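[audit] Reproducing an earlier prediction to check determinism. Same input, same settings, fresh worker. If the tokens differ from the archived copy the diff job will pick it up downstream; this log only records the rerun itself.
[audit] input (304 residues):
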Amino acid sequence: MDKRDQLIQKLRNIAVKTPENDVEVPEKVEGFGTIEYGAQTCSACKKCILACEPAALDMDPTMNLPDYLKATIPHDGFRSKNRESLVTLLQGLREEGNVVAISVPDGLPGYGSIAWAADRCIACDKCIEACLEDCLTLEKTYKLPEIIGEVKPPPSITVSKDWEPFILCFVCWECSHAAADLAGLMHLHYPTNIRTIRIPCLGAVEPMHIMTALENGVDGVLLTGCLLSECHYGGDSPKAGNFMQYDFVKFWMDVLEEIGMGGRIHIDSASAAMGIKFADIVKEFTEKIQNLGPSPIRGKLEVR
């Protein structure tokens, strides 16, 4: 099982409700997206399939006629004039009634449809670059309902009066870890519900780390790093660790919201001199998790 398969499996493990909507992917977030396919211009040359390393594309030996019937031929026409003639012919022969996909006889080249597997795709653009007919495009959306599928809600959890949330906090060792130390030296009182994990940079936190924590029943995940534009590994570059992580966390917040785990991840920043701010960040996030209650994953863990 590769890294992508492991991540999707963890998403399915922590899902407590069936997602209903696709999730928008921020521009900076790579590796996630949707391949849109225009069957009308496809010549079934299979170049995109050969270029796809994760095997997310395959040839489906059918022609989806509704795609051809709704096609609009551009002013300068299709690159393939044979395909343009086919679309024109099919639209001219259209009759009222249901129009379905038809099978392509064995050995008939140039016809068929490209089948795309959302759970295998890494949105690398290689299939798009290989396509001579411009029938593939990458859309910045994540087909979450298709990937997660139907979800069985976990059993409800009985909350005891003395329940306290368990929160995992990733802190960068350049700034926010020092801010946590300063908060301790200043004898600032903030909830002791967090367990800190020191990391080189906020950008080092991968989705697998967050999903693994949630999968094991953690009630919330907090990420704290350097101030924006002051990252020790990138400064004010748009590709600095904390800049990139903010977009990733925004994406995963939307994903978690769709699968019933919304509100259980938060990202913030504090410089080494901001002990008070670090304490406030922990207080506010802890209060938020207390209002949400225990992670519903605990119900799944009890069943296991």
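[audit] rerun output stored. Observation attached for the diff report: The mean pLDDT is 87.
[audit] end
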